[in-house]
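Example for reference:
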Amino acid sequence: MSDVRHVLVLPDRDAAEEVAEALGERFGVDEEPRLVRDALVGEDDAEDAQWLVLLRDEPARLDPAELNEFVAGWEGWREEP
């Protein structure tokens, strides 16, 4: 089994939480995505933090382009891990 991971970058915590919830509805993911705060280098203000949604996809069934299009609705994007 491969260890495929997707990293979705969102502008704020609310967007990250909405995406994590919507992933189950839209893509039927079984495992709960992890939310991680990613402070920008040199930034002390919490408002300047991005949020990451980390998603394991061991069967590699999720299409990266489709995930990127999905998170664009929240002003986010998919990063290569």
In short: The chain is about 30% helix and 30% strand. The first helix runs from residue 13 to 27. The radius of gyration is 13 Å.
